[in-house]
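Two folds, back to back.
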Amino acid sequence: MPSVSGMEELLGVHVPPPRELFEIREVHVSSALRRDPLPGIDYSFNPYIGCYHGCTFCYVPRLLQIDRNTWGASVVVKRNAATVLAKEVRRLPRGLVAISTATDPYQFVEGKYRITRHALEVLQRAQFREIEVGMSVPTLDDRARALLEPWAPPIDSRLRCLRALADAGLTTFVGFAPAYPPTDGWSPNEIAEVFAEAGVKKMFTRALDPRWGVPEAIAKRLEGSDLAPDLLRLGDLDTIAPFVSRLAEACRARGIDFRNAFEFRMADSNQSFGSPAKALGSR
């Protein structure tokens, strides 16, 4: 098999990592689809392991049991994932496939490897016809986004993408998760109106999962920011739950199917941090 540099020369494609010290590694896998435990989903398919975006609150480091400080510093490319997927779908019953439950399908390496694109082509040929496309938009305040998701796309670019997908006739959804507390004066009605104008048809939300060093990582990222007093309430149910309930009403009034609005309390979650009486890192 040619080396990465050899393949780049052969294909005329070179996608350098956007920041220094980012590692890209290729592997071959023996399985592609995973039976997914999430309700309403039959399978999950993750084209990559790791994620360039490296969001501060991501739950995946806990799932992988890796040091949160290394999250966002590397990505593993499942080079043959689409080929393996093509073999698996011949024998598996049809069902709903969630693509990228633990990574981002269109992080910058996709521009070179096209694992997500090839997987979609495989599923389409195998008669997995119904397609919905969504993305995480847990806040409309891009200053807040830049603090906790510094390498993820800006909010405006996500909204433009959702509008373009809707205009192309696709059903779009938004993961308002983990729900940020309101900042920069955004009201539930204003947020709902922006999503409606972007053509969003479905939304879901969930609470912040504080396990595996999330509170400490968030507190460190917010040091010195004037948004810290607000964003430190990200895990405070007394702040988040009423806000999301009002957002759910505003979204439904605009024809958006908003789900999980009241399912905030999770096992081992949101019980010991984020309230006004405690610092975010307190345990």
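---
second:
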Amino acid sequence: MSNLGVTLDTGPALVVSTRKGLFFLQPKSRKHTAPMQGSSDWQLSNPVFLGHIINHALLDPRDGRTLLAAARTGHLGPTVFRSLDAGNSWQEADRPPAFDKAQPGEKARVVSHTFWLSPGHASEPGVWYAGSSPQALWVSEDSGATWGSVRGFNDHPEYEARTEDPQAGTPDGPIMHSILIDPRDSRHMYLGLSGGGIYETLDKGETWNPLNQGMASPIAEAVAPGESMETPHGSIAWQETGPQHDPHCVQMHQQNPDVLYQQNHCGIYRLERPNTTWERIGNNMPTDVGDIGFVMGVHPRDSDTCWVFPMDGTDVWPRTCPGGKPAVFSTRDGGNTWARQNRGLPERAWFTVKRQCMAVSSADPAGVYFGTTCGELWGSENEGDSWYCLAAHLPEIYAVEAVEIQ
């Protein structure tokens, strides 16, 4: 199947995946002689795949031209589309991610949707990875045309103990996300499971080990209103494997890949390898804000700088800005201190920002962008010091990526 696409200029672009299609934004001016201040400075494309859910779309940074989009369509079901000409034309994958047919006595698994896409190592052009619901890892060696199972994870004897039951837990189904490839070693990878925790492989996916030490986890049993829902690391009830762990987003610093950041269901964490115990740097956030949220963005050059978008995690877990006061928080010292960054944001708004909806550009200073479920796209060209609305009235935003078209 082919699909009419868009014509994109070379240079910076934002790839915006939504509940009703895929959009692109580019600066109207190719010359950045003055800071961009609002939606009038950006050109919004027509939608691609209008009416279809696009969970995630991403440009391949190795060639600057190949785009992949993970779609859940009304008639084709879950699939992956790809463009080899920077979005001008699209084709459906010949073989999208799909489980083998169950043998007699086996439990059948069916892909509900592909949730996450990650380009492979710089030394492996054409290699991509994908995470799905139910939780499984897939690999393509032909730029997304065909996909195969990474059996070291998907067929592991302890698969059911490590992952979350598709009928319980995470809204819209358990997902695999945050597939991270070490830029120094194509065999070294991380992935996140909601729920299930974080796993690491040193042999390109043949074997996997949990990396959840130091993380609190939600208690599965019901608790009374106002009581803690966390099982602290070290308690009798704490276990390293299992669906009780719920990392929402994990990021690796590309220039210092020993540094990992994580926005978890139970706080904000940092890990510096070779250590294996996460540090809850969210304990340093203001107590009236807390450290609950979904997104995590890291600075392209400074491994001590990251951004989060806190959301209300009290009582019924409304998943909106605490007190209806939206703000991004940043740290410049690895989480020891945090600064509120809300200049230009609405004084009162109940934004929800999903786990794939913050992006950080490679510009200097770095651009920071986030999208909301109410269809607003916000940006900062000065690393969060001030914000402006790039686009409004879009469909519910599922993912945002900052890319460079070649």
